[in-house]
Amino acid sequence: MTPVAILGAGMVTGVGLSAAASCAAIRVGLTGFVETRFMFDGEWLIGCPVSLEHPWRGREKALRMLSSAIGECLGSALGLATDDLPLLLCVAEPTRPGRLDGLDESLLDDVQQRCGCRFHPWSQVFASGRVAGLEALDRARQLIVDGVRGCVIAAVDTLLVGSTLADYEKRRRLLTASNSDGFLPGEAGAAVLVSSPGDGRTAELRCLGVGYGVEEATIESGLPFRADGMTQAFGAAIADAGVAWSDVDYQLSALTGEQYAFKESALCVARSVRPVKHGFDLWHPSDCIGEVGAAIGPCLLAVALTAARKGYAPGQGVICHAANDDGRRVAAVLRWTSPGAS
Question: Domains in the chain, start-ordered, CATH in brackets?
Answer without folding.
Answer: 4-195 (3.40.47.10), 204-337 (3.40.47.10)
